[in-house]
Amino acid sequence: MKTEFYQTLNRQAQALLEGEDDLIAAMANFSALLNDNLEDLNWAGFYIKRGEQLVLGPFQGKVACTRINMGKGVCGTAAAENKTQRIADVHDFDGHIACDSASNSEIVIPVRQDNKVVAVLDIDSPLLNRFDQDDQIGLENMVKSLETCLFG
């Protein structure tokens, strides 16, 4: 059932992004789509890699940290390792950066151009263990669609 949900959501993302090659515009609509369709979220958005930092990009949710150093927190770890981070309880993650004290679980997915991280998709939930393997696969496939739209 979750697989079908993400396939449908991915088709919506592809239709929404078709023909759009502007990073900010695509990320803005992508984060809005996720925020409108995924339950139990309190933040969905992007951090864009600028040198050795991630800088806040388009998002939906409460005020957020503006800059995150590479390798720091869940976002910086995902970017530095070029690997999705799915964290059941952020309070157990060594070095977690608490931008919103209401966040309890998080998934962060690298956005790549030519296999190099250019941004990360960050999604937070007030629920513990909100994201499972099906969420990870579905969201990673959606990010692949975003990458294809933006970078070919």
Automatic annotation (TrEMBL):
Any one GO molecular function term: L-methionine-(R)-S-oxide reductase activity
Regions crossing the membrane: none
Pfam family, one: GAF_2
PROSITE patterns cross-referenced by the UniProt entry: UPF0067
InterPro entries: FRMsr_CS, GAF, GAF-like_dom_sf, Phosphatase_reg/MetRdx
Positions of the GAF domain: 39-142
GO cellular component term of the entry, any: cytosol
Family: Belongs to the free Met sulfoxide reductase family.
Stated name of the protein: GAF domain-containing protein
Species in which this protein is naturally found: Shewanella polaris
